[in-house]
Amino acid sequence: MLLARALDSYLRHVTIERGLSDHTVSAYRRDLDGYITWLSEQGVTDTSEVTAQVIGRFIEERSSEVPPPAATSLARLQSSVRGWHRYLAREGIEQDDPSGRLRPPKAPRRLPKALTIDQVERLLRAPSSEEPIGIRDRALLELLYATGARVSEAVGLDVDDLAHGDVLRLRGKGSKERIVPIGSFARDAVDAYLTRVRPGLAAKGRASARLFLGARGAPLSRQSAWLVIRSAAERAQITAEVSPHTLRHSFATHLLQGGADVRVVQELLGHASVATTQIYTHVSVDTLRDIYATSHPRAR
User: Fold this and answer.
1) Is position 271 annotated as part of the catalytic site?
2) Would you say the pTM of this structure is higher than 0.70?
3) In the annotation, is 35 catalytic?
4) What DSSP string runs through 18-71?
5) What is the CA radius of gyration of the chain?
6) Rounded distance, CA 181 to CA 84, Å?
7) Is 87 tagged catalytic?
8) Which residues contact 145 (CB under 8 A, 6 or more apart)?
């Protein structure tokens, strides 16, 4: 099958049949667009012409770029290539999968960076409580920290997702839904936004069911949410790097430090495997000493 046609078929599959998010599908598209461009430059025009050796050369060239790509980026690229060729073989479009022996590089295991509780409180207080956009921003930040939601999940919320009182319905990866509690601080902040700000924003744009709206009434984008977080971090004078995932990391870390069971945190984060959640279970040497001193009968 011609490369472009095979790629379109695969992207339709992951979008419609597997229900992957727009963000994930876009990442696949970027990776595979670069891959088929390289294949075309090598004179490969059909998927039947791709061999394990061809794929190996592609990965080797990408690995030797200057500056070299991050291990995580290279691993994702290999995953995209493997997924495409696996699909072509499974659907009978090609007889075999030439990427079968491709192994991803081991990504360095990095602990997620979390803010301290004091830093989180400063971040949440940073937006103005007197300005409409500040009220919206505080509601967004409070909700992110209270629920551990991904930014894409938060901006994808509809007003009706809050209809259950003290819990919230989130739609995660693969359109999987989960129910998470929402604390009183976040609930109060969201209620203030709903009653004092959202009606005015909604009147500026087309009718939308989305909870968070931009200044012109359109649904708030992921990029705009990122800017909200960065602006709040600057106003709070937080020198540590604060990314869209920082509040999610902080949510998980603070829960575990407070004694929450790792499997409960797994459910709240929407992780398919508890192994993913366990990266948050690191504790400092000081914390270990404190727990030992208060727990062991002969520690003192």
Assistant:
1) yes
2) no
3) no
4) S---HHHHHHHHHHHHHHHHHHHHTT--BGGG--HHHHHHHHHHHHT-SSPPPH
5) 23
6) 38
7) no
8) 120, 124, 186, 247, 250, 251
Q: Choosing from 76, 85, 248, 254, which is the catalytic residue?
A: 248
Known catalytic membership, residue 173: yes
**Structure token digits, residue 299:** 């520690």
Select which of 136, 150, 187, 198 is catalytic.
Answer: 150
Please, which residues have CB within 8 angstroms of residue 40's CB and are 6 or more apart in sequence?
Answer: 3
- From the candidates 76, 138, 187, 271, give the one annotated as an active-site residue: 271
Distance (Å, rounded) from C-alpha 64 to C-alpha 11? 28
Residue of 86, 125, 173, 178 marked catalytic: 173
| Contact (Cβ atoms closer than 8 angstroms) between residue 138 and residue 124 | yes
150 is catalytic: yes
Backbone CA torsion sign across 40, 105, 241, 278: positive
Q: What is the pLDDT of residues 166-195, one digit of tens each?
A: 888 888 776 788 889 998 999 999 999 999
**249 is an active site residue:** no
